[in-house]
Amino acid sequence: MTRPLRLTGGALELPGTGIFCTADGAGIAVLEALVAAGDPRSARLTDPEVGYFDLDTGHYPMLSRPGELTEVLVRAAAGEGRRLG
């Protein structure tokens, strides 16, 4: 806790997953609109290694929809998910 953390960037080489809890707001469609608008900050979001899922629940899906969340996590581990790129 007293030594600085030095990140190597290795985590950027791993596949990623975004799960949008749509009961609290935006989903994949909003993300697609941001990418379509051409904002350069959204470039990483279109990485083919990143998949996205919408889950109709609030901020705590592990409490409100544990079964559905488990299904999404299994699908994500299998490489599924909507790609933006």
Rg, please?
A: 15 Å
Order of helices and strands: EHEHH
Question: Runs with pLDDT <50, length 5+?
Answer: none
Shape: globular
> How would you classify the helix and strand content by structural class?
alpha+beta
- By DSSP, the count of extended strands is 2
The biggest beta sheet reads: 2 strands, parallel
Count of runs of 4 or more consecutive helical residues: 3
Q: Helical percent range?
A: 25-40%
Structure overview:
The mean pLDDT is 91. The termini are far apart. This protein has a two-stranded parallel sheet. The chain is 29% helix and 14% strand. The protein has 3 helices and 2 strands. With 85 residues, it is α+β, with helices and mostly antiparallel strands.
Condensed summary:
This protein is an alpha+beta fold and 85 residues long. The chain contains 3 helices and 2 strands. The radius of gyration is 15 Å and the shape is globular.
Write the layout of secondary structure elements.
Elements: E1 16-21, H1 28-36, E2 50-55, H2 61-64, H3 66-77
Parallel strand pairs: 1-2
Based on the model shown, name its key terms:
3 helices; alpha+beta; two-stranded parallel sheet; 85 residues; globular
